[in-house]
Write a structure and sequence with these properties.
Blueprint (H helix, E strand, L loop, with lengths): L8 H17 L6 H12 L4 H11 L1 H9 L6 H36 L17 H15 L4 E7 L2 E7 L1 E5 L2 E5 L2 H10 L1 E5 L7 E9 L4 E9 L19 E5 L5 E9 L3 E6 L11 E10 L4 E17 L2 E9 L2 H29 L2
Helix pairs in contact: 1-3, 1-5, 2-5, 7-8
Length: 355
Amino acid sequence: MFSSEDVPQEELRSFFINLYHQTFFSKDRDLSSCVDFIERMRAKGVDLIFVATKAFLLFLGDFSLQCFHKESSIEPVVDVVQQIDDVMKGCSRKTVEGEEANLISFVRKLISHREKAVDFSDVEPEGKENQRILEELKRIYKRGEEVELFNIYKGLHIRSTVPIIGVKRDGVLLEVGPTQLGAIAIDRYTLLKHPGLGHGVYGEVKVIEPDSRRIKLWRFKRAEGKEEKRSSVRVKPKDIVEVSVKNEKGVDLLGYMLDISIDHMNVFIPKEELPFGEGESLRLSFRLEDCRNRESMEVRTEGIVRTVRTMPRGHSVVFYLNTTPQEETKLSVYITCRQKEIVRDINEYVKEYLS
């Protein structure tokens, strides 16, 4: 229960009078002040139904005088209550629309390029660990061996094997291809892999030479090897892809695709508590674009919950996709299309910003 202190009385009175006059006299029913009030109250944890009820009860006297004047019929009251209810619903719709817009904006951030940033601020270029890694790279260089570079752009693995041009105390110089160059320029780091480096080493970009396609890395951090678990091509969608999540037990949720591979899909579900757990089977349905003809393909498949991760505003749920051959073909077409689009985006970035 809320106490009377939850809502400032003068503000509530102003809200009710404003609502009353908007109900009767505003031709365009501008509800901006109504929405502002509700947003302020919701920020304080006050429920909209409570606000409406308390407003009605506190000002029933004013309400009755303006409704009846000298009439004794109850009909004017019924009519006003209905109109106020209509305005309240309008306020609710505007508030919900605002919340939905914020949610869509949040999902767009989740499907944007960068999955995580690597922080090199605690690495000293002249520190022992940094110089130790440079010595390891120097030994690889002297043996004439190459290193593999690994980046992730919009879910897609960007990897290539490249020669080391030189190693000094201030960094290592590498020559890379155009796609890898673009991914590294966007990230400002890359993951170097070689048996002599263990799980791998993150290297921060110090200098990029676009004409010669050479980069210099100067600060390094040991990697944990998590990227090794990515066994299949995975891509993020270009824009919002809604996913229906259902089962026979009454689960009926709307989620948003974060990334997809031929056999797995990561779905963000904006719900604090999920009515299912790991290992459960659900029905998934969503639409993907077929870039060959710019048409939409509907995919219906069984999804088995592999992992559930709590995140702001909901959960990230990874499903294993138990697809039919027909549905698998649709996924293959979409993933191939997205691969080409993502590589094209990187190459266009190189031409526009690094040429």
